[in-house]
Design a protein that fits this description.
Number of strands: 7
Helix content: under 10%
Shape: elongated
Strand content: 35-45%
Order of helices and strands: EEEEEEE
Largest sheet: 4 strands, antiparallel
Radius of gyration: 13 Å
Distance between the termini: 42 Å
Length: about 70
């Protein structure tokens, strides 16, 4: 059996948060595209964006940290 890891593009128009922004649970912070499917990335809890570690159109690998949050 073989395993294939698919890279993903960030395609938000633009990324919907910036450092210092407050977020709420389930808030969409960016949209990613994989295999022509758009996948929303959502905040898991209340917090503040500490840093955005990617830009629109960036090719990222599974498991990459895209946004850092603080509670």
């Amino acid at each position: 059996s073989t395993s294939t890891v698919t890279a993903t593009f960030i395609v938000s128009w633009p990324i919907d948060v910036a450092a210092g922004d407050e977020v709420r649970p389930n808030q969409v912070v960016m949209i990613m595209e994989a295999m022509k499917m758009e996948l929303p990335v959502r905040a898991m809890s209340d917090g503040v964006v500490r840093a955005v570690l990617c830009t629109e159109g960036t090719l990222v690998q599974p498991g990459a940290i895209l946004v850092e949050f603080e509670s």
